[in-house]
Design brief:
The chain is an alpha/beta fold. Helices cover about 50% and strands about 15% of the residues. It folds into 2 domains: about 30-110 and about 215-330, 3-Layer(aba) Sandwich (D-Maltodextrin-Binding Protein, domain 2), CATH 3.40.190; about 115-210, D-Maltodextrin-Binding Protein, domain 2. The protein has helices spanning about 1-30, 40-50, 55-60, 70-80, 140-155, 170-175, 190-195, 225-230, 230-250, 250-260, 270-275, 285-290, 295-310, 320, 325-330, and strands spanning about 30-40, 60-70, 85-90, 100-110, 115-120, 135, 160-165, 180-185, 200-205, 215-220.
Length: about 325
Amino acid sequence: MSINRRTLIKSSLAVAGAAAIGAPAIAQSKTPIRVGYLHTLAVDGQMWLADHLGAYQKHGLEPEFKLFQTGLELFQAMIGGSLDVLSTGAVISNFPARGQGKMFLTNGVEFATAQLWVREDQGIKSIADLKGKRVATTAGTTAHVFLDTALKANGLQSSDIEILNQRMPDAVTSFISGSVPAVALWVPFNITVRDKVPQAKKLIDASAFYPDAAIMSGWATTADFHAKNRDTLIRLIQAWAEGNEYLTGKTDEALEILQKKHYPQVPLADFKEQYAAQKSFPVAEWRKLYSDGTVTKWLQQVTDFFAATGNIPNPVPASEYFDPTLFMEATKA
């Protein structure tokens, strides 16, 4: 009996040792994925919450996050091969329409994140006053799309103003310095303007045109990665969905975590104001918006803007560059 016991103990230790040896191999088997993103709540909120919850590891992913300043730089990096996927703002309706990338996931609607700020001390009290004036913004972005919509709603065209195309930090600096009397921006740059130019006035924001001119933020990948890595993308969506349900289901708790870990420079009250400027939906609501064609319609509206202003010949329609099937499969009951 003692021999059998020793044999049993040795066998048990061997199994335990094999498990211990196998543990790192299992960890190493997680799929690496290179993720580019913009650091704004409407773009990276669910992404970071999924990370906080350990959702990527749970779904067998090992993400490497890379920060970029503009959507243009994101798409250039992805097309150049240094990113697998990206999360960005309105340009999600631009480059895929040029045949550069495949969209597969939405973050939300930038409901009021785009805003027009003016200096009344330079004679701007209404949108009509912008005629013949310079307006700083970043061309091809959420802010630019919103600005064009606001102008048209007030009887003006983009050709009626002079657009000063700068990266957003520079556009805001131009406004603060008084070089331009107006700036079309996105949150959180409104906080900088409000702090540095107390007399500045927010004339209008994108909520005035919702849902007829809804601006989406979302995720894209290359056509090649989309074709060859469907399972990886589905697992990425499943991880994102956990972050999304946390954001929409326990909003105050989730925002406090995000602010503390990723936006410590933004006061919590201002951070909550940023969230109020966007529309995030629970997964069940997203499934409805995907399946009834609403998301595709919203994307097409912005694509039409880019096709007109960016001279996109034969743009790929949203119905072709946006693939809703991944989300529907990833989130099915």
